[in-house]
Sequence to fold (384 residues):
Amino acid sequence: MADKAKKSTTRKKKLTKKQRGKRKLVLFIVEILVLLLLAGVLFVVSKLNSMNEGELDETDLEINIDEETQEMLKGYTNIALFGLDNRSSGNYDTGNSDAIMIASINNDTKEVRIVSVFRDSYLAVDDKDSLRKVNYAYAHGGPQEAVKALNKNLDLNITEYVAVDFQALAMTINKLGGIELTITDAEANNEYTRAYIDEMNEKFGAGASYLPSGENVHVDGWQATAYARLRAIGDDYGRTERQRTVITKMVEKAKQADLATLTGIINEMTDYIGTSLSASEIIGLAASMQDYELVDTQGWPFKLTTGTTSGGASVVIPTDLETNVILLHEYLFGTDGYEPSDVVSTLSQRISADTGTNADSTVRDTTPEGLVNAGTPDTEEESE
Fold:
């Protein structure tokens, strides 16, 4: 860390104090909002009024954690992040949430962890606690219901969200000059990635070519978006891993960009954002955001199996929910021996009874190394 700080200090001396301050603020906005959802959610204070603001009703967000947990979570800022598969921009009240993430910011250490919740996760998604795929919540109740579902099933206290559509992802990556990805032949030649690029070329005049294959190949924003959306290879697991790879590459590229490039991105992106964050809240984050660092990303549930509902839908089943919530809190907040709420315990029992599964049903385990309750990753699956 000392060497990193020394290099950073040396680099800053090349700029005036005023330039450093401006660049830090803009880079903060790029970094946190690239983190805030694979889609270049970039905004600057002067542009805040052009964002699509969507306030949440904080009295109806299913925050069921006890006082001790609430006190502990005061040290963290947790924000729900949604990537919407809308074919038209500007609508953030509904849509298919193809990407569901939680950005957890440690307010003291400035470390950021991102958890991708598999969109097919079988959880309680509405006021009736119906068990369905978690992406149902946004499609039928917008950000309010989607945030409620995350809080209720995961024992969290989320009160803010950011939503973007996938056009924003493509535009941001193009402004950054593209990124480098390692793409397999199967991913490059997949009919779904090609169909998506064809659609974007026709709808937006993207002019994108099909995906290339190889190690560290250069791709533009539309190609990267097609790669991030691909679900046909690796199902939901593969898609969320690809999404997190794109995020990481975008963060790396943003840190190398000059002020003019970053400002240009900001100026274009504000119409592609839906958020509950206010100007003052963003300014508060900006105060020290240059010190923030993305330290890890993971897919959730860590322990799972798959199954089919009575209606024929393929779902991802946490095995079991209670265990996965304990592991999630340990991963995000460093808790040891977290006790899930009665709500989570009850939902865990319902999911197990409905699917006929339990902790012994686990077929895929990607619990991060170092957790007290960590299991051994499945040798046939890549660890997230």
Observations:
- The radius of gyration is 20 Å.
- The first strand starts at residue 52 and ends at 53.
- DSSP finds 13 helices and 14 strands in the chain.
